[in-house]
């Protein structure tokens, strides 16, 4: 189990929130576009990041966790999705350091 001391070390007054990768999906609208979804530990807020794949050998890392401004977080309205996100955040926190590439 990986310690999560980084969460406690973050300043309480910070406008940033730690989010964890919970989902990777391919865009229906665009070819070669991956949507990375990160969520807060309670699953109630999310942050989406789009990444274009420039080639089949594109090997940019994907961070297990990010610090993002709270103003950039969206609300997760669906209770089932919130629960799924919270469960996945817990798994990610147990298995990865925030700076890990996965």
Describe what this molecule looks like in 3D:
- The protein is α+β, with helices and mostly antiparallel strands and 102 residues long.
- It has one domain (5-95).
- Helices cover 22% and strands 32% of the residues.
- It is built from two helices and five strands, in the order αβββββα.
- The protein has helices spanning 5-9, 79-95; strands at 16-26, 33-39, 45-52, 65-69, 74-75.
- It has a five-stranded antiparallel β-sheet with strand order 4-1-2-3-5.
- A hairpin with a 5-residue loop joins β2 (33-39) and β3 (45-52).
- The longest helix is centred in the C-terminal third of the chain and has 17 residues, at 79-95.
- Mean pLDDT is 86; it is low at 1-9.
- This is DUF7967 domain-containing protein.
- It comes from Halomicrobium zhouii.
- Residues 14-102 form the DUF7967 domain.
Describe the structure in brief:
This protein is an alpha+beta fold. It has helices spanning 5-9, 79-95; strands spanning 16-26, 33-39, 45-52, 65-69, 74-75. Mean pLDDT is 86; it is low at 1-9.
């Amino acid at each position: 189990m990986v310690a999560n001391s980084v969460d406690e070390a973050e300043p309480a007054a910070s406008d940033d929130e730690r989010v964890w990768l919970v989902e990777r999906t391919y865009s229906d609208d665009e070819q070669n576009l991956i949507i990375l979804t990160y969520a807060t530990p309670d699953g109630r807020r999310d942050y989406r990041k789009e990444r274009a794949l420039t080639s089949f050998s594109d090997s940019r890392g994907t961070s297990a966790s990010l610090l993002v401004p709270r103003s950039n977080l969206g609300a997760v309205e669906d209770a089932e999705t919130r629960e799924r996100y919270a469960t996945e955040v817990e798994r990610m926190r147990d298995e990865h350091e925030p700076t890990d590439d996965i």
